[in-house]
Amino acid sequence: MGALCGIVAAGAGLAAAEAAGLAARPEATPLVAVGGEVIDATPRPVKELAVSVLGTADKAVLLAGMALALAGAAALLGVLALRRPGAAGAGVAVFTAIGAAAALDRPDSGALDAVPSLLGGGAAVVVLWLLVARAPEPTHGQEPREAAESAAVEAPAGPGARGAGTNRRRFVAAAGAVATVSAVGGTGARWYAASAAGRGPSSARFTLPEPASPAPPLPEGAELDIAGLDPFFTPNEDFYRIDTVLSVPRIAASEWRLRLHGRGAAEREYTIADLLNRADLIERDITLACVSNPVGGTYVGNARWIGVPLAGLLEEAGVRPPGEGGPADQLVSRSEDGMTIGTPVADVMDGRDAMLALGMNGEPLPQRHGFPVRMVVPGLYGYVSACKWLVELELTTFEDYDPYWVPRGWAEKAPVKTQSRIDTPGDGANVSAGTVPVAGVAWAQHRGIEAVEVRVDDGEWQRARLSAEDTADTWRQWVLEWDAEPGEHRISVRARDREGGVQTSRESPTSPDGATGHHGVAVTVTP
Ligand SMILES: Nc1nc2c(c(=O)[nH]1)N[C@H]1C(S)=C(S)[C@@H](COP(=O)(O)O)O[C@H]1N2
Ligand SMILES: [Mo]
């Protein structure tokens, strides 16, 4: 009986929280907020395992698992409530606090975000106490019916006797009503929130301005239409995320400031409006890659960015590249969360589209990808160029300053290595004999991809067909129509860049400056 009270009360609390979430933010409801915290806190290997086993169902499974765990705890608290309602109330308060704390810790949150958890916790306690107070007495092993009847027989005229059956019916009716209202109200609120969320961003942040220099139109044939091949533009939801933060920094765009200072630079401070209103905004397609990407890995993605050309901003502050006598050779970017990233001033000012990015694939930077402002520098690994949640730029020297990763054994300078990856067929795949498209992506940012070659077993390297090149800063897709013969085969790929570099077969680890080697997949071809 107590367990039933607890579960019904928890359901009522969650439903109340969902309803309150419509007024506050749907992201702030306890299940969603705690789930988000769990995801943020999950170590990368565990997360990768979950994603590889569950795929896109990982979040649904997480939420269902949390609901189950909560039901278990609610049942225990309900049993406790029969004897000690106060202690059970304290238990509910603990869960309420967890929900509220998670909601307040979520990206973009405000004080209002605690409201759904607090209201939900309040509703749960009230329902729990009301139900427990009305719960029929335990019947000591007898069937409820018999208990009621025997009570009636023993005390035929007493009011308490008739009350036992009535109480039971009342209790069941009340619990059933609460459960029904909770289920309908809770799922209704969640459904409404989901449909409302589809209509537009829940928190208006800023509107992306029109760039003075838009990205050139994508050339025809830049995207090959092959099942299993990564899309040319990586959707923001799918873009890899690598950073050291457990909880994504929340920066209000209106409060954001960027300080520029250091050797050979006039000190400057910029607001978000300063950047948004600039007349020199550019829009560019740039492929970002992580130095921790293993050969064949997925820590690489391509996006259309909008931002302020970094070289122009530095020139306005009087900065000259070292080649022109400037005293600083390292630009250190600092983030809200204290990350430091060092980039060669020479690279930033050599004409490439290094930028302070505000937009990613047509929307303001997602919180996870550095809102409101991050750096993007074509051709350099993220850890030496792509500072997210940027708040400070300092001109210094490599001799004088080691940014975060350098004392941890990573290279001071790290241009992206020429790399290629087979997306389809997957490693270990079974395919039928005949024509099989072998396809993937190749990147050599800022040098450009010249050719991609594929080899089956110990055969000749064969030229793959390349997608049309967008820019030298973006990856290219490639495909080889393979005439697959029955048996076990190993397929490898290598890329050539525009500067004559050939992707080496020599295998080296990601540390200190990026993995090398050829990506290969083993495939079984059935007749
Ligand atoms: N503030 C901050 N910025 C950061 C990092 C970080 O840990 N903190 N990681 C860097 C690394 S290692 C990479 S590869 C890119 C990844 O950017 P993404 O998460 O948007 O894909 O961000 C870079 N910028
Ligand atoms: Mo990285």
Automatic annotation (TrEMBL):
GO molecular function, one term: heme binding
UniProt KW Zinc keyword: no
Transmembrane segments: 60-80, 87-104, 110-132, 171-193
GO biological process: sulfur compound metabolic process
Composition bias type Polar residues, residue spans: 502-513
Compositional bias of kind Low complexity: 149-159
Span list, region Disordered: 139-165, 494-527
Domain (Oxidoreductase molybdopterin-binding): residue spans on this chain: 247-400
InterPro entries noted in UniProt: Ig_E-set, Mopterin_OxRdtase_euk, OxRdtase_Mopterin-bd_dom, OxRdtase_Mopterin-bd_sf
Keyword line: Membrane, Transmembrane, Transmembrane helix
Protein name: DMSO/TMAO reductase YedYZ molybdopterin-dependent catalytic subunit
